[in-house]
Design goal:
The structure is a homodimer. Chain A has helices at about 20-30, 55-70; strands spanning about 1-10, 35-50, 75-80. The first copy, chain A, is of the alpha+beta class and about 80 residues long. Chain A has a single domain (about 1-80), classed as Mth169, Chain: A, CATH 3.30.1280.10. Chain A has a three-stranded antiparallel β-sheet. Strand 2 of chain A pairs antiparallel with strand 2 of chain B, so a sheet runs across the interface.
Chain lengths: ~80, ~80
């Protein structure tokens, strides 16, 4: 058993409207950041887990996403294991 | 001017208690994920911006974090530009 660190980014699917991102973009513009566009807001999780190898760890985290962390109807996710 | 994609992960500083992460960890344990520990919950932003080069883009996003996206008292952030 080795210890792995997992980072998970959860974002709304492209087809889903993101009012939070839109509000942040407006705030950025009003602060003078005219060069920014297309802001999307999401969630970030970091966790530690024990697994035999990196592939097991990846699969285990994928299972956590599917069962608890992510709403597959409106959200997508990416996992990085280190 | 080139177009860059920025990804920003905002997490609570290690010294700050994370009740959301603790609750998620308890939920994971009750779902049978005993192999997980140390869950930290945070925010994730993705945005597009125009800049002359990658260093300018990085600095610009850093400025956005310092001015709007991050509360430096309790949060830390990491930026990746592509």
């Amino acid at each position: 058993m080795k210890t792995f660190n997992a980072k998970i980014n959860v974002t709304l699917k492209k087809s889903v409207l993101d009012p939070q991102g839109k509000t942040i973009l407006e705030a950025l513009h009003s602060l003078g950041f005219q060069d920014a566009s297309d802001v999307r807001a999401g969630k970030h999780f970091e966790l530690t887990l024990n697994a035999n190898n990196e592939i097991d760890a990846q699969n285990r985290v994928k299972e956590m996403c599917d069962k608890l962390l992510v709403n597959p109807v409106i959200e997508q996710y990416e996992i990085s294991i280190s």
